Amino acid sequence: MKGSPFIMSKKINSARRVSKNILAFKCPLCESEMRVVEHKSLICTNNHTFDFAKQGYLNLMTQQSNSHYSKELFEARHKIINGSELYDEMHKSISNVIKNSMDTSINPCLIVDLGCGEGSHLQRIIDGCEIEAITGVGLDIAKEGIVAAAKRYENPIWLVGDLAKSPLADHSFYVILNILSPSNYKEFKRMLVQDGLVIKVVPGPNYLKEIREALFESTEKKDYKNDDTISLFKEHFKVIHNIKLNYTKILTKEELYNLVGMTPLAWSGDQDRINAFRNQASAEITVDLEILVGINK
Ligand SMILES: [Zn+2]
C-alpha cells in the first residue's frame, strides 16, 4: 500500500467513524441510504460513490464549488482562533449551553457545525463540553477549510459538502452549530432531532469594528445590521437563550496580520489602509456577538 502508515490510519479511522454513524448520512445525489465499503468509500444504494481522502475527510460535493476561500485564509483563521483568545468566551458559552441541555444517556450524540471552515470552533467547543458521547461533524463547502481541519483534528468527521445538496440525513443531529456563517433553516429543521438545539452566532453591530473603521472611508460598509438575521431565526425556531457577548482584546502585530488575513471584508479594502492597520504594534479589537439558541417550533 502507498502512503505512510499514519496517513493510512487516518483514512481508516475516519471510515470507521462514518460507518459507526452511517444513519446520519444520505446520498447528496439521490438521497438514498449509504454504506462504507472497505474503509475506502461511501456508497449509496444506487452506487453513487464518494472516496475518503488520505487526510480522512470526505468530499460529498455534487459539483465543484466556487469558494475562493484560500488555504492562507484558513491558516490565519486557525492562528486567531487558537492563539489570540478572541473567541474563547464564545466557545465557553456554547459549551455550557450544550452541557446544560444534553441528555448524557444519548450515545453517540452527534453535533454538526454547518459552515465549520478549518474546524477550530467545533473542536474547541467539543473539548469544552467534556462529554465522551459527543461525535462532531464539520461540513463546509470550502475544501481548503476541510483539508486543514482533517489534518489537525482527528476525532470529528470532516465533510466537504453543500447545504443545498446535503449529505446529512433527517433528524440525525442533537445540536447544529452555525457560527458566523450562512444558514439554511429549512435544512436545519430537517436534520435536527426533535427538541434538538440550533446554536447560531451572529455578529453584533460592533463586531471587529476597528478593522472596518480602519479599512473603509465611507460608512456604508462599517456597520453590521443583524436585525433581519435575528428575526428570520425567530420565525423558524423558538429562542430559548439569547446570549450577548461584548468585550475587547488587545491583539499583537502578528495577530493583527492574521486578523486581516482571515477577514473577507479586507479583500475589498484599500491596500495602504490595510498595511497601516497591520503595522500597528498592537490594537484593541472588539468582539460583539449574539448567540441564539433555538429549538424546533
Ligand atoms: Zn445516490
TrEMBL record:
- Family annotation (Gene3D superfamilies): Vaccinia Virus protein VP39
Transmembrane helix as UniProt keyword: no
Q: Name the InterPro entries on file.
A: Methyltransf_25 (IPR041698), RlmA_N (IPR048647), rRNA_m1G-MeTrfase_A_prd (IPR016718), SAM-dependent_MTases_sf (IPR029063)
Q: Is Transit peptide tagged as a keyword?
A: no
Provide a GO biological process annotation. Answer: methylation
MF terms in GO: metal ion binding; methyltransferase activity
| Tree of life domain | Bacteria
Residues annotated as binding S-adenosyl-L-methionine are Y87, E118, G119, Y207
**What are the 23S rRNA (guanine(745)-N(1))-methyltransferase N-terminal domain coordinates in residue numbering?**
25-64
Keyword annotations of the record: Metal-binding, Methyltransferase, S-adenosyl-L-methionine, Transferase, Zinc
Q: Where is the Methyltransferase domain?
A: 111-180
Q: Which residues bind Zn(2+)?
A: C27, C30, C44, H48
Q: What is this protein called?
A: Ribosomal RNA large subunit methyltransferase A
User: Which species does this protein come from?
Assistant: Schinkia azotoformans LMG 9581
